[in-house]
Write a structure and sequence with these properties.
globular; binds magnesium ion; 13 helices; 10-stranded mixed beta sheet; alpha/beta; binds 3-isopropylmalic acid
Length: 378
């Protein structure tokens, strides 16, 4: 039996190509793993009305970790239009599989390291080494949404919230409501994960990202809980910043920041910004981590227009595989993978289109596999 059982979820779009590339590198490391393929993706929505079917949910219950490529997500009406005609008009709604997966398995930590590999011409600045802890299950991603707005809800809002009077004259189909739901528990545990990480890795500071000056209830709660956690870590510096300001400050002074902790949506946005500063989405990797399961993925989407062209940069997925190795306790293999990526980037000979070159997805995978340092004792 293999040491690790890993769910293999390519998804759709460029997901398939970048996963095949990551596999070349994992095989180069001779990871002792069983890779169990799982059905997930846009085509399953179109055919079966479920992009993340129960059989894949079951698969995830019996694995140590999962590696996930990418899945196309479309707004509700566009999704309905692509559904098999036999399945239309049944009120089926598309919800992003990765968002569902995060909630179903309580993968509450979204860990997104953004480190500039030395010599990458795409670096915004050399030396950037940021780590984002994004809350991954609640906030504006809670899925509590109304469009049209039912009259019962409008009545309650009118009775309870004075500012709602500005909207109460509208018909239900003239507006929409998305609820931002943040809990004390959810805010506390993501903050604790960020501070624990900072302490154990000798990181100097955690910055709490919010917009508590305007979004008083939910962001106020997030900030308060995170500050309570900070008090337990006097050895780690802590500051906080509004999400708009942090966008500006990160760009201006990226070396002044270290670990960032944010509610779900701000974390989503800030992590794209940080990825761009270290080479773009071709370098952004991500771990969705819970107590029992962790799912690793590139931060980028399925990029349908690049699909099937063997041109997408697989480094983000290769780095997601590195995060998975660390999580599985395969730290020596993780370090070798990291050294190989660093060597390929520093050499600058093999570059995909986003890096200004014409290497294919597979060229890049092979280049990384070739640079894997020999295992200690081998
Ligand atoms: C991400 C992505 C997802 C998100 C999408 C694909 C639903 O942008 O992982 O950052 O919004 O979380
Ligand atoms: Mg995102």
């Amino acid at each position: 039996m293999s040491t690790h059982r890993i769910a293999w979820l390519p998804g759709d779009g460029i997901g398939r190509e970048v996963m095949a590339a990551a596999r070349v590198v994992l095989d180069g490391l001779e990871l002792d793993a069983e890779y169990v393929p799982g059905d997930i993706g846009w085509e399953l929505w179109c055919r079966e009305s479920d992009a993340f079917p129960p059989r894949t949910v079951d698969l995830l219950k019996g694995v140590d970790a999962a590696l996930f490529g990418a899945i196309t997500s479309k707004p509700a009406r566009a999704a309905e239009a692509e559904l098999d005609p036999a399945l239309r008009s049944q009120g089926l709604t598309y919800r992003s599989p990765i968002v569902r997966m995060r909630q179903l398995f309580d993968l509450y930590v979204c860990l997104r390291p953004c480190r500039a590999y030395p010599g990458n011409a795409l670096n915004h600045r050399e030396g950037i080494d940021l780590v984002i802890f994004r809350e991954n299950t609640e906030d504006l991603y809670a899925g509590v949404e109304f469009s049209p707005v039912p009259p019962e809800l409008a009545k309650v809002l009118e009775a309870l919230a004075e500012p709602f009077r500005a909207f109460s004259h509208l018909a239900g189909d003239e507006y929409a409501v998305s609820c931002k739901v943040n809990t004390k528990k959810g805010s506390e545990r993501i903050a604790r994960a960020a501070f624990e990480f900072a302490r154990s890795r000798g990181r100097r500071k955690v910055t709490i990202v919010h917009k508590a000056n305007v979004v008083r209830a939910t962001d106020g709660l997030f900030l308060e809980e995170a500050k309570k956690v900070a008090a337990d870590y006097p050895d780690v510096a802590c500051d906080d910043a509004n999400v708009d300001a942090i966008g500006m400050w990160l760009l201006k002074n990226p070396l002044g920041y270290d670990v960032l902790v944010a509610p779900n949506l701000y974390g989503d946005i800030v992590s794209d910004l940080c990825a761009q500063m270290v080479g773009g989405l071709g370098f952004g990797c991500s771990g969705n981590i819970g107590e029992k399961l962790a799912v690793f993925e590139p931060t980028h989407g399925s990029a349908p227009r690049h699909a099937g062209k063997n041109k997408a940069n697989p480094i983000a997925t290769i780095l997601a595989a590195k995060m998975m190795l660390d999580w599985l306790g395969e730290t020596e293999k993780a370090a070798r993978l990291d050294a190989a990526v660093a060597a390929v980037v520093a050499e600058g000979r093999v570059r995909t289109y986003d890096m200004g070159g014409d290497a294919t997805t597979m060229d890049m995978a092979k280049a990384v596999a070739e640079k894997l340092p020999v295992a200690a004792g081998a």
